[in-house]
Amino acid sequence: MSVKEQTYIMVKPDGVMRSIVGEIIKRFETKGYKLVALKMAVPSREHLEKHYEDLNGRPFFAGLINYMASGPVVCMVWEGRNVVLEGRKMLGATKPSESALGTIRGDFCIDVGRNVCHGSDAVESAQKEIALWFPEGLCEYEKPTVSWVY
Ligand code: RTP
């Protein structure tokens, strides 16, 4: 898998309110991934419905949109080898009761309805999500530390 693989990671409103934005960024930074986009936003319900369109019709969908629209989120794109799969591992299982300790969800939350962060589940969905959240494009730059990671 290419070093240029990218994933969309989003700190959800509960993660922002609980002041763990820096902790989540720190885990991706210290793992060795490269930050190529970062912003804070208060997404519209329409935008969130588009992001979660695959879940439309699930019993928790309305609650999920209410939760996600309840405050600002922090949107990021991280780049590096296998970052989609590795990012999901770093987040931990969707349900915090099943997330291993040491993962973000395993360490910082209890309830599936307040699970602090999102991460793309496949390369294809990452590309769709990056286009949805960053239509303005990403930040292109060379990072000299990369050769120390790979
Ligand atoms: P995410 O998209 O947020 O990274 O989560 P995921 O892929 O791990 O899980 P997914 O099945 O796509 O669910 C998206 C989000 O919906 C909420 N959820 N609530 N009440 C429930 O049973 C339930 N199930 C899912 C969670 O916030 C989950 O992250």
TrEMBL record:
Coiled coil: none annotated. It comes from the Eukaryota. It is an enzyme of class 2 (transferase). Residues 4-140 form the Nucleoside diphosphate kinase-like domain. The active site is at H118. Pfam families: NDK (PF00334). Belongs to the NDK family. This is Nucleoside diphosphate kinase. The lineage of its organism: Eukaryota, Sar, Stramenopiles, Ochrophyta, PX clade.
